[in-house]
Design brief:
Order of helices and strands: EHEEHEHEHHH
Radius of gyration: 16 Å
CATH class of the largest domain: Alpha Beta
CATH topology of the largest domain: Rossmann fold
Number of strands: 5
CATH superfamily of the largest domain: Flavodoxin domain
Helix content: 25-40%
Strand order of the largest sheet: 2-1-3-4-5
Largest sheet: 5 strands, parallel
Strand content: 15-25%
Shape: globular
Structural class: alpha/beta
Distance between the termini: 11 Å
Number of domains: 2
Length: 168
């Protein structure tokens, strides 16, 4: 099975996941989205991205326009908790961008939030949706420790399971 791992990363979180997947799937090719090859010859394409406005970032969305009739796995990082409604809706919205592809599975974990974004959110009033409440500050702190070793292990197990399922 010919596997391609394509990723987009702003702060290094998604790159870290992609590199771990590449180590686990040693036969897979790994590339940044800006250098991604023609997807046609690949049997399985793993797309890694960071969540921006509840969907994959712009660079990944642009690459996804090239995908038609492919088997795809989605992996992502975001500042919110991975079991949150926001995480689930973000994956669903991203999958909807490639309706004629077969989504083989998805993985999502927290990732450290861009410090510039936290700085901006700290300037907002507390009653703003992104304002610096105690709950939100805890989320920011929690996100800062991810992706961690447990996240990387879980991502690798997810990817290995996809490949195994596709080769049986």
């Amino acid at each position: 099975m010919k596997t391609l791992i394509v990723y987009s990363s702003k702060t290094g979180n998604t790159r870290k996941l992609a590199q771990a997947l590449h180590l686990a799937l040693s036969d897979a090719e790994l590339c940044r989205v800006e250098m991604a090859p023609n997807p046609e010859p690949y049997d399985l394409i793993l797309l890694g991205f960071w969540i921006e406005n509840a969907v994959a970032d712009e660079k990944m969305k642009h690459y996804m326009e090239r995908l038609h009739g492919k088997k795809v796995g989605l992996f992502a990082t975001l500042g919110a908790y991975p079991d949150s409604k926001h995480a689930a809706e973000s994956l669903r919205a991203t999958a909807s961008l490639i309706p004629d592809c077969d989504i083989a599975g998805h993985f999502i974990c927290q990732g450290a939030i861009d410090p510039e974004l936290i700085e901006w959110m700290n300037t907002l009033p507390k009653d703003h949706g992104y304002g610096p409440t105690e709950t939100r500050k805890k989320l920011w702190d929690d996100a800062g420790g991810h992706p961690n070793d447990e996240d990387l292990k879980a991502a690798c197990e997810w990817a290995e399971g996809l490949v195994e399922k596709e080769t049986v």
